[in-house]
Amino acid sequence: xxxWSFASNFFSYHTDCSQTEKFGWLEATHLLSPAxxxxxxxxSIYSKILDDIMDAQEPNGLCLTMAPKTRHMCGQLHDIIxxxxxxxxxxxxLHFYYDSTHIFEKLFRPCVNYMEYIKTRENGSIEHxxxxxxxxxxxxxxxxxxxTAIYYRCSRYVEIMAKVLGNSIDQSRFRAWAHRIxxxxxxxxxxxxxxxxxxxxxxxxxxxxxxxxxxxxxxLALQFGLVPEKYITHVQSASLDRxxxxxxxxxxxxxxxxxx
Length: 260
What we know:
- GO terms for molecular function: alpha-L-rhamnosidase activity.
- The chain is mainly α and about 260 residues long.
- It has 10 helices and 2 strands; from the N terminus they run H-H-H-H-H-H-H-H-E-E-H-H.
- Strands 1-2 form a two-stranded antiparallel ribbon.
- The longest helix is centred in the middle third of the chain and has 22 residues, at about 145-165.
- The mean pLDDT is about 85.
């Protein structure tokens, strides 16, 4: 069943509704692309998807949530970094798995334009769009944690592209960009005062002041390397402790599950 669901996507793009809707949601590309090449050679399709993303990119730099653009999405569904942001890590997937860098030169400027667009939407962290899609409500659900982490990852991948292309100025620029995001992430989302819990932990901004410390927010920060070294064991303890508090149930959905 899984094999044929994947195969139904292989004609030209990933989609989350492989039997019915058939829209080119980049959410599905973000979630499936790191694993799909383990069952098929995906280099040509991935290169084609990147061409679709560039074709659909808006003049202000925004990469859309759907490519090819088969319909116009409004409101929160128009700009979601967890979907649109695949433009930055996708070239590195081609590099890592296929030793292919031919796409870097073509994608570098669109990636920079996207990052410069996202910078106009940030307040240090990124909090617009959807959160952990499918869990409770899609809005106000770990948005700052997910989106700021993806923002950080995008800056790192653009830094890698600049390095491969021999662009030392942009390499330094995006390294500094990533460091700034890390600093803001920890200022807003890492709690170190131990007033409510006997350890430092990551919290969401779902309910300011609650220090909810769910397992997913700890895992996300650890997986992305955003936790300062001296707090890593604290955040690990917070995740385990929270698991005990919820009867050892894993609570995450479409975006968060793979990190947890």
